[in-house]
């Protein structure tokens, strides 16, 4: 069963009966009359039907007019009907008669396309692939796992599928997908939110294959904290690094602000050891200051056993010039880094979170990798919260452009989808380098560095070109708003990053 929407509406039926003697003249007039009727507003089509049940000496004709709606018929009956009927009465007088009725069109049936199925959701008779009332698909059977896999592989390996038609402009034509969506060309590409969701899931899935928590090393030290992110990519390519890993080190200390000048020279070192304390030749050096030795042992006991000797020797060398007061302070921090003295919140409405922060601090100090994993698990939430925030900034920058907020949100859905796509490429190269050895690993490492170097320049250029294409402003205006957007982007990123740290700490 198929509903023909072009014929839907109202059927106006006129049944005519005339003398057989005037059949030729009557049929000629009737065809001209129908042609005039079809010139009136709302009249779509007409059909003449013969009726063989007429009595002797009489002829019968039935005319069915199809109108767009009841309003068109009402207009005809009120305005045009008297004039149209007068011409027939003038020509044939009482030698013909007519009666009329109005029929409401429901649906047409076509041979071979008849359906008696009903929508499983609302019960409406199905007339196609989707329900005409609620929109649900007519076929809702649960497919097998193998069928699902085949559909997915078909989409991936079919070069003309929506996935590939979407990824090519996403990577190499900045802003095109957003512009096409706003112009109404949507069926040709993967929907933006679905694309963002798929690429983000793939990105975090690949990144999570290797334990993300093991690369985070949080150390609470002398009056502050240090966060170390380990990256074994350099070591993997054969470079000589200190301790076997390349480290990105961030330190926070109340005694020295970032970028400040070096502190004044420390007090003189401990006096020379007496002969009885002098270590024998070929014997490893041991700490001679008891406070320094306790501090060093308190630190190295938190490390894996294989790394303790090297760290112990390095700390012994560095702490030899530290004053006793500083050693005492550091020892207190290391003894209980999460005490009330070390963690204090002096902001009124945040005071209630201080116990929970100390509790989280104890968990982090005992297992820093769990904190890294929790950060990684919460990162998608942060990115999802970041999107509406930066879209709001874009709405302010283009205030008065007549665009809706959701258009700016759509712009950043596509931009961040591109960002995830680039991240997937970098992660794949990194993981391939980690899974191989020798020259092959070096090749993947070189390609990875080349891609990262290219992205450093391409990512901001991509954003600028996307803004020009979607918002259609000149280079100067776009460059001005681009600069403001980059600054706002970094500020919003820092704010959401800080929120991520606090949220992770409070929910750990």
> Mean pLDDT score, rounded?
77
Q: Helical percent range? A: 40-55%
Structural class: alpha+beta
Can you write the helix and strand succession as a string? EHEEHEHHHHEEHEHHHHHHHH
How much strand content do the residues show?
Answer: 5-15%
Radius of gyration: 40 Å
Number of helices: 15
Distance linking N and C termini: 59 Å
Number of strands: 7
Strand order of the largest sheet: 2-3-1-4
Largest sheet: 4 strands, antiparallel
Bulk shape: elongated
Low-confidence stretches: 1-7, 218-229, 231-268, 273-288
Describe this structure in words.
This protein is an alpha+beta fold. The chain has helices at 23-37, 70-92, 145-157, 162-172, 176-183, 192-209, 233-236, 290-300, 308-318, 324-335, 354-366, 368-397, 405-435, 438-471, 475-507; strands at residues 10-19, 43-51, 58-67, 96-104, 216-221, 224-231, 246-252. The chain is elongated, with a radius of gyration of 40 Å. The model is unreliable at 1-7, 218-229, 231-268 and 273-288 (pLDDT under 50). The strands form two sheets. Strands 2-3-1-4 form a four-stranded antiparallel sheet, with helices on one face. The longest helix is centred in the last third of the chain and has 34 residues, at 438-471. The protein starts with 9 loop residues before the first strand and ends with a helix. The chain is built from 15 helices and seven strands.
């Amino acid at each position: 069963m198929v509903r023909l929407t072009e014929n839907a509406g109202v059927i106006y039926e006129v049944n005519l009966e005339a003398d057989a003697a005037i059949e030729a003249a009557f049929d000629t007039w009737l065809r001209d009359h129908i042609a005039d009727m079809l010139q009136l507003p709302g009249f779509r089509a007409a059909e003449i039907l013969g009726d063989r049940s007429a009595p002797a000496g009489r002829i019968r004709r039935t005319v069915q007019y199809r109108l767009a709606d009841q309003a068109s018929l009402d207009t005809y009956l009120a305005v045009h009907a008297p004039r149209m009927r007068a011409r027939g009465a003038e020509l044939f007088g009482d030698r013909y008669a007519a009666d009329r009725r109005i029929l409401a069109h429901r649906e047409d049936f076509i041979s071979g396309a008849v359906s008696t199925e009903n929508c499983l959701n609302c019960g409406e008779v199905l007339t196609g692939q989707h329900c005409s009332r609620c929109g649900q698909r007519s076929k809702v059977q649960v497919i097998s796992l193998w069928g699902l896999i085949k559909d997915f592989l078909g989409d991936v390996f079919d070069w003309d599928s929506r996935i590939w038609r979407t990824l090519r402009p996403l990577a190499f034509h900045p802003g095109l997908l957003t512009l096409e969506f706003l112009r109404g060309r949507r069926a040709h590409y993967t929907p933006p939110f679905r694309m963002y969701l798929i690429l983000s899931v793939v990105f975090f899935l690949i990144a999570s294959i290797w334990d993300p928590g093991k690369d985070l090393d949080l150390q609470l030290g002398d009056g502050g904290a240090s966060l170390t992110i380990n990256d074994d990519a350099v070591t993997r390519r054969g470079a000589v690094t200190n301790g076997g890993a390349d480290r990105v080190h961030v330190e926070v200390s109340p005694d020295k602000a970032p970028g400040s000048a070096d502190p004044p020279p420390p007090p003189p070192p401990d006096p020379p050891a007496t002969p009885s304390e002098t270590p024998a030749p070929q014997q490893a050096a041991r700490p001679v200051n008891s406070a320094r030795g306790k501090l060093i042992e308190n630190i190295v006991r938190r490390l894996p056993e294989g790394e303790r000797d090297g760290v112990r020797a390095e700390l012994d060398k560095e702490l030899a010039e530290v004053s006793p007061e500083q050693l005492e302070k550091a020892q207190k921090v290391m003894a209980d880094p999460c005490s009330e003295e070390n963690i204090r919140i002096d902001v009124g409405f945040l005071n209630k979170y201080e116990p929970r922060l100390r509790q989280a601090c104890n968990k982090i100090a005992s297992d820093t990798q769990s904190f890294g994993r929790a950060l990684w698990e919460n990162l998608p939430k942060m990115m999802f919260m970041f999107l509406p925030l930066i879209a709001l900034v874009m709405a302010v920058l283009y205030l008065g452009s007549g665009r809706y907020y959701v258009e700016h949100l759509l712009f950043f859905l596509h931009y961040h989808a591109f960002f995830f796509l680039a991240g997937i490429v970098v992660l794949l190269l990194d993981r391939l380098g980690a899974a191989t050895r020798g020259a092959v690993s070096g090749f993947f490492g070189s390609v990875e560095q080349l891609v990262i170097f290219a992205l450093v320049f391409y990512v901001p250029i991509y954003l600028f070109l996307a803004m020009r294409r979607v918002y259609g402003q000149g280079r100067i205006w776009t460059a001005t708003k681009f600069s403001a957007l980059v600054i706002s982007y970094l500020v919003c990123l820092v704010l959401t990053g800080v929120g991520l740290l606090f949220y992770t700490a409070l929910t750990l």
